[in-house]
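Entry 14. Ran structure prediction on the chain below.
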Amino acid sequence: MKTKIILWTMVGFIAGLFFGLPQILAEDRSSMTGNWEIKIDRTVWGMSGQQTLLFEIQQQSGKITGKCSGPAGISEVSGDIKGNDFQFTEYQAKQMYVIYKGKVEGSRVTGSCEYDYLNGMAGKGTFVGERK
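Output, structure tokens:
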């Protein structure tokens, strides 16, 4: 009798891993919720350089909101995510914003960004980031 209970317990555990784990991993893999350190290689107004920003992101039902902290202070972030693909905008100042487009894979993000000032292209860059 003990052997049957142990056997069925093991079968249940293995079935749970087989059917439940892929779904859990898929959900975590595309989640943007959390704190991110993102390094950007950029050229803005003809000047090239690297910048590191800290993002605090919340994701709910395909929507992204949050804050970005960097040398210019704290700015608001909002956008969308579908699967692993995301796009969000960081509103740096009244007429300046940055559009980020990329992919999230687990604890890593990669992509590109465009700097817009007064509805004109001010620069662009690429980024990589890690969840902290």
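Confidence is low (pLDDT under 50) at residues 20-27. Will compare against last week's run tomorrow.
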